[in-house]
Amino acid sequence: MAKRVVIAGAGLAGSLLAVYLARAGWQVDLRERRGDPRSRNFVQGRSINLAISARGIKALRRAGLESHILRDAIRMPGRMMHARSGALTFQRYSSNPEHAILSISRSALNLALLNAAAAEPNVRISFDQRCSDLDGERGRATFMNTVGGAEEHVEADLIVGADGAYSAVRSAMQRREGFDFEQSWLGHGYKEMTIAPVASGPHAPFAMEPNALHIWPRGSSMMIALPNPDGSFTCTLFWPHHSTVGAADGFDAIADPAVGRRHFEREYADALSMMPTFDADFAANPVGWMLTIRCRPWSSGGRAVLVGDAAHAIVPFFGQGANASFEDCEALVDSLERHPTDIAAAIRDYERARKPNADAIAEMALQNFIEMRDRTASRLFLARKSIEHLLHRFVPALFTPRYDMVSFDTIPYADALAKSQRQDAVLTAVAIAALGGVVAGGVLLVRALMAGGA
Hints:
Blueprint: E1 4-8, H1 12-23, E2 27-31, E3 50-52, H2 54-62, H3 66-69, E4 74-76, E5 78-82, E6 88-92, E7 101-104, H4 106-118, E8 123-126, E9 129-135, E10 140-145, E11 151-155, E12 158-161, H5 168-174, E13 180-195, E14 213-217, E15 222-227, E16 233-240, H6 257-267, H7 269-272, H8 278-284, E17 288-296, E18 299-300, E19 304-306, H9 309-312, H10 321-338, H11 343-375, H12 379-394, H13 402-407, H14 413-435, H15 440-450
Helix pairs in contact: 1-4, 1-10, 2-10, 6-8, 10-11, 11-14, 12-14, 14-15
């Protein structure tokens, strides 16, 4: 008799996991608290573009969905930095010219994964279903219909909470003794804006270089822009919720289009000229919040488990939220295959493998925010990147930049963090030496690497 799984949440992770488990022979009951997005051809919620990289590509390839889902994705092999003066500087992500991250719409990706799940004969999908209670020992969950209010109790061999950062499944787990939970709100919020397509120009229909992640770093804040297939760019402002002392640079002070326009004229003048819908976008689009969630355990009763943002929500600054969630799905399916008769053991192995990596990418995502907004325009940062790329090109067995390990490899996040920390101190010293004209700095770094420093 086929095993039965109930998955709460038909977002990115839940839909992909449904595909995996259905193909492994499970009967899948996929439930989503929102309405069916296929009826309106978009998914409500956060719409920040995603950066899909090696981990996400691997997971989609495993499901046979890579070519279909990524056919409209746009390659971004580096960052385009925008100075206040309008001067542009392109920074490659890697010394390998084949390496690039991919810009894709979150909504389009979610719809494609949901359609893939719906195409599986073993998958049943229902909407307007919010999880209201959980019994992990019995493998029992209660769902409430958000339209009519009716409750339904369902039982399964496995219950998966894939219902995002505000997970109802996790909330039910939190009511049990011994469940540790921590959430940290970032002091910065985000607001989306749009750079419109153009009829003419060197990159038409794009108003600027499409094969780059554009960044306007401004110290305590920044704006980024990712390309869309129609020639537009999805821009995201990352500003403090509350202005820094002596400055009116936060969302609290820049609250209406007129003030926003004046701020853009000072800080993002080159972008403002490409935003014909600025006033309407600024007025209509809300300010979002960002948080990091850590919890332990990720399971309850041996038959309920969390994946993706429900287990480890992270800030978006390394572009790894979806990629990490997809890795969770692969890890859980692999663990279930290794323990076909013991779901509790499979869950323990899954959590043991993934928890350290989730903590590591959460830390690196926070660190990358500081790098993107504060350091990407500095001479020391550029010197470090040049040295990183040089070393990776000529001694790749001894040195791999953090960005390459995270975005263009699938080594565990925890290993990438540990190795990059060992490399970091030596690299900083050599970058300082290089800026001072000390050529021997490169030799010192290579010797340190040869001695096992990395």
